[in-house]
Design a protein that fits this description.
Cofactor: Mg(2+)
CATH architecture of the largest domain: 3-Layer(aba) Sandwich
Number of domains: 2
Strand order of the largest sheet: 1-4-3-2-7-8-9
Mean pLDDT: 79
Keywords: Hydrolase, Magnesium, Membrane, Metal-binding, Transmembrane, Transmembrane helix
CATH superfamily of the largest domain: HAD superfamily/HAD-like
Shape: globular
Helix content: 40-55%
GO molecular function: metal ion binding; phosphatase activity
Structural class: alpha/beta
Low-confidence stretches: 1-7, 21-86
Strand content: 5-15%
Family: Belongs to the HAD-like hydrolase superfamily. PHOSPHO family.
Protein name: Phosphatase phospho1
Largest sheet: 7 strands, mixed
Number of helices: 11
Number of strands: 9
Order of helices and strands: HEHEHHHHEHEEEHEHEHEH
Length: 338
């Protein structure tokens, strides 16, 4: 008996460790998945009864996307747009077009508008001093906590967002896209703002039905009326802020949609933006695609600098814009081609 135990003890130990690992992994997955279900972020077809080795990878960025339009509605809204995030868009669209939000759709930074609802219209110096480069999302969470402490209500925040002015020509561009046959444009928003700001503004102006997907930082009003932000994802890109790399979003979304379309590519991929964090996704565009940087904004300057330093490195065609009408002119031209 002693000899039997001596010979088989390593096997028993390995088996015990293996079973423990399986149980731990199973429990870890299902605790996380249960949390995802409670927030409406579980993937379509997922079950709590799940064998862990079938998918050891963590959730993709698409669990944070916002899909079909709905009316804003506080904490319930946060659950709704996450739970609908996996509805498949039509697969016959010819062109895929991405839009930034701040200083592309709206003519200012939506976060900056929150200063106007602070007492006296200013933030205290000690709060502004907490900002750290690359950590703007965390800074905004502190700003929103301060606003809640000062009695600023969700309604006041929504009213402020609704008043954000659109960039010149953007309403005309949105109406143009809405007027096109359904098989022409698949429209997506990729923004470092947040779900509440973007949803509120788009709904207010009637442009929400245009957008198939919105990729941005999740946000919701908690029971105390504070707007709670979460980072969109983590990544390794050194160009982008810690909470979002738009190139990762665009690359993964494009790859997923090509698979869903039966490997059928889009005729063109278009990207409309303004900021330095819009330069990163424009780098993955192909020679047949079009980048629309806002004239003389950081995205445009970075593209020009690359063109001078490394001619031919930037692959896509570049069409700078000062008004949404400039974008419309180019879209009309590509629609004329078969």
């Amino acid at each position: 008996m002693d000899q039997f135990l001596f010979l088989h003890l390593p096997a028993f130990s390995f088996g015990f460790c293996f079973i423990s690992f399986v149980c731990f992994t199973f429990c870890y997955h299902n605790v996380n998945l249960a949390h995802s279900f409670s927030r409406g972020r579980a993937k379509a077809g997922e079950s709590l009864f799940y064998f862990p080795f079938l998918s050891m990878m963590r959730d993709s960025v698409f669990n944070c996307c916002v899909s079909p339009p709905h009316t804003p509605g506080g904490a319930e809204e946060h659950h709704q747009h996450s739970s609908r995030a996996h509805a498949l868009p039509p697969n016959d669209r010819r062109f895929l077009i991405f839009f930034d939000f701040d200083e592309t759709l709206v003519d200012e930074c939506s976060d900056d508008s929150m200063v106007t609802v602070a007492p006296g219209g200013v933030l205290p110096g000690w709060l502004k001093d907490t900002y750290r480069p690359g950590r703007y999302n965390e800074y905004m969470q502190r700003v929103l906590a301060y606003l809640a402490e000062q009695g600023v209500t969700p309604a006041a925040i929504r009213r402020t967002v609704e008043k954000l002015p659109p960039c010149p020509g953007i309403p005309a561009l949105m109406r143009f896209l809405l007027s096109q046959p359904s098989r022409d444009f698949e429209v997506v928003c990729v923004s470092d703002a947040n779900t509440v700001f973007i949803e509120t503004w788009l709904q207010h102006l009637g442009f929400r039905p245009l957008f198939i997907r919105i990729f941005t930082n999740p946000a919701h009003f908690d029971d105390n009326g504070q707007l709670q932000l979460s980072p969109f994802h983590s990544h390794d890109c050194l160009r982008c802020p810690a909470n979002m790399c738009k190139a990762v979003v665009v690359r993964q979304y494009l790859a997923q949609r090509i698979r869903e379309r039966g490997r059928k590519p889009y005729q063109k991929v278009l990207y409309v933006g303004d900021g330095a964090n819009d330069f990163c996704p424009s780098l993955i565009l192909s020679p047949g695609d079009i980048a629309f940087p806002r004239w003389d904004f950081p995205m445009h300057k970075l593209i020009r600098e690359m063109a001078e330093a490394k001619p031919g490195e930037f692959k896509a065609s570049v069409v700078p814009w000062k008004s949404g009408e400039d974008v419309i002119s180019t879209l009309k031209k590509i629609l004329e081609r078969p």
